[in-house]
Specification:
alpha+beta, disordered C terminus, two-stranded parallel ribbon
Length: 147
């Protein structure tokens, strides 16, 4: 199946990897000018670690970040409002949480995309969706009828 993915962020690139491994022809389009990741650090919760493990990328991502033991929320004065024992969550879910820079996560995903040799599927930066994709998106948004 030929698949067009709009957006070469973390989710789009991860989807492209999974779909390519299933034998699909994938094309990835991104409207931003380049592959620089927007944002700073992210916490990858156990469900994200499960997906990365399924993609065979968890060890690479884990090597670039850390394992947060807890999360604390405080008010403006610094008084505690809430605390989450992330270690307990990780044990209950059987996958670890990781804190990593978004750009590092994106770099691992893009390297895997390149490793798969996806000719024509690496992100086409600063592109708008093709005419059929725009037509489909506008029809979906403008019509309640089935497509």
């Amino acid at each position: 199946m030929d698949i067009l993915i709009l957006g070469a962020g973390v989710a789009g690139v991860a989807a492209a990897i999974a779909l390519r491994r299933q034998g699909h022809a994938v094309r990835l389009v991104e409207r931003r000018a380049g592959g620089d990741a927007i944002g700073g650090g992210v916490v990858l919760w156990p469900n994200a670690s499960f997906v990365l493990a399924e993609l065979g990328l968890l060890e690479r991502v884990a090597a670039l970040g850390g394992r947060p033991p807890a999360m604390r929320r405080m008010d403006r004065a610094g008084a505690p409002l809430m605390e989450l024992d992330i270690g307990a969550l990780d044990r209950a879910m059987a996958y670890p949480s990781h804190a990593v820079l978004r750009r590092d996560l994106q770099a691992v995903l893009l390297a895997e995309l390149a490793r798969l040799g996806m000719a024509g599927a690496s992100p086409r930066w600063r592109r708008r969706p093709t005419t059929p994709a725009r037509r489909c998106a506008s029809r979906t948004a403008a019509s309640s009828a089935p497509i």
